[in-house]
TrEMBL record:
Gene3D superfamilies: 3.40.50.2300, Ribonuclease H-like superfamily/Ribonuclease H. Coiled coil: none annotated. Pfam families: Piwi (PF02171). InterPro entries: Piwi (IPR003165), RNaseH-like_sf (IPR012337), RNaseH_sf (IPR036397). This is Protein argonaute. Belongs to the argonaute family. Long pAgo subfamily. SUPFAM superfamilies: Ribonuclease H-like. Residues 374-673 form the Piwi domain.
Amino acid sequence: MSQELYFNIITFDLPDKPITFYLSKEKIGNAQKLYKTKFPTNIEDLFPGIKEENPDFIYTSFIYEKEGYLPLKLNLKEQPTDLIKHYYNWRIKKFFKSIKKLVGQNFVNDNQIWIGNRSYQNKSFAQYYKFTVKVQIKEVSEYGELVISYDGMAKVFKKPISEIIKHTSTTNLNKVVYKMRLLKYHKEKEFIDDNTKAFAILNNDLRTAFNIQPEPKDDSNKYISYKHKIDKFIQHFILSDEFKKVIPVNNDDYLPVEINRIGEVTDESNDLLFQNGVGRNPKIDFKNLKPLNPCQLDNVHFFFIHHTSYAKEVEALQKLLEDGTSWYKGLNIYAGVLAHFDNDVNIVFDDLENPLPQISQGIKDFKSDPNINYVAIYLSPFNKHEPNLEKKLVYYKVKEQLLYKRIISQVIEFDRFRRNQHKFIYDLTNISLALLAKLDGTPWQLNVKPKNELVIGVGAFKNTEENIRYVASAFSFKNNGRFNEFHYFSKSDVKQLGGALSDAIYQYVPTNQIPEKIVIHFYKDMKDEEIQPVLEMMDKLKLPCPLFVLNINKTKSQDIIAFDQNWNGELIPMSGTFINIGRKDEHKYLLFNNLRYKTTVQYPSHSSYSFPIKLKISSPTPEALNDSKMIRKLIEQVYQFSRLYWKSLRQQNVPITIKYPEMVAQIAPRFNNGVPDDAKDALWFL
């Protein structure tokens, strides 16, 4: 069955006739500020010599006559794209404000429209659905384009902030609704004249302060619910006669994806190599085909870190890990980890509220045998949603202290195990997988011919809840996905980043032949100053191979995606489909990665419904991008590396070149002494 792919885009016509903008060099009253990249192409007709003057900004009232502003006729089709987008964003914002809708902006200044959910009944909150209307100009068509996306739901307190701050600090406030405006409280509170008319938007801090439980996780097909919501939004607003007077929408249907924009990875890109053959679905094949390489370490001894009252549960958990059940048959048979449980060295604590001092003392006093490889299973009294930061950080402190003792660790939430012992075998499958990888085993790898190429991934993490700045880390891999080593550093430290990337190349070359190519997977656009140290190292080592940089982004909800209208109503494009979403000679792609293959009749239940990721491919030597076969290989490699995630058997859509660095960047800043050097070539963080 062939695919019928559609973008979440509604197109509109750019005007054929000139329109008049009103402009001024100085700001007079309310006006829109235009940066110099947005200056009209014929700006010299209005302000002779302005290009030589080179001011950073001019001002405009756009199509409205205004005292002090001069008229200039423009053919919009000949103007800078940024100017056209600014103009239409301004018109869209004015339209939705005119019909009394809340309008905010996302981090790239696209309009985000908040629509109240009238059917939501709750005495404490009002609920809003958030939609982004993103303007593009001739990106994937010959028209103006409105990318319509659903950004999730927000809740707003019905009581004003004058009431809720009686029960919590103003430091917990972030965004508020005030007189039909969305404001950032701490940056814009001077605009709030009456706190009895300002209403806080629920965030994590307020959720914790008022002990409000998070929304239950929705594992249903989000393509269906997503499209249903944007269908209603488009029908009600975008296709209305009033909106069409503002933005001349020219088609009531979604924009079809042109066939020449669609590609597919090779079918073999789905293949994973296990001990007893080739598979595609780790959830099934890991158990049936067995791990590629069992645990490579001898004398593996397990012990527990637990509260005194957990003795019965520790015994039950040990029995499951040793003997398993009729389906999960224990660590050895299921995951190839031959383990001995040494309960004589268990670390036991009796303070449930503050267990760290006793655990730390137990680790400090731990007498390890150099001939034994130890694994600690920490039964944590705190879950991942623990609101108390000090309690939440215990896990990281325990992991760090064990790592400095060269002890691998695995955390298990005690309450989760206690409540669901009969279902916990499903957790144990993932835990066993991660333990095998931590113990230098290989669950599976790509079924590809080894090539002499180096792949380096850089990811980052920011935890706003705990005020941890972005921290990045760099991982290096061989082409079959075999991990080499990693480094981590502050996001803002370009020197350390360049050093880490250069070091990955320097460490690889002496023990290998000259690589055929070097590929960097980066979590954002890579700047020239970040690439330069890599080029200098390649020059120093006299490496003639090409360098490719792939910017890899998880597709946020405020972005372009695609639906397949021709597959059982499920809407999910086939796994391995990639779509060119750039203009001519731009290497920008959507890449879909899921469990729908050519032979799939119905999408597997309880599987991931991930949206696509976005790729942007570049090279310091542009001629290297002329090879279409190479471009395809680079896309296939991203696809394949997403299938090497060893923390869970569930299919991922982000490659480990980005995912693993992000995981380290989440953990490492919480360590007091950083990651030990001898732990930088191991997967202890899984």
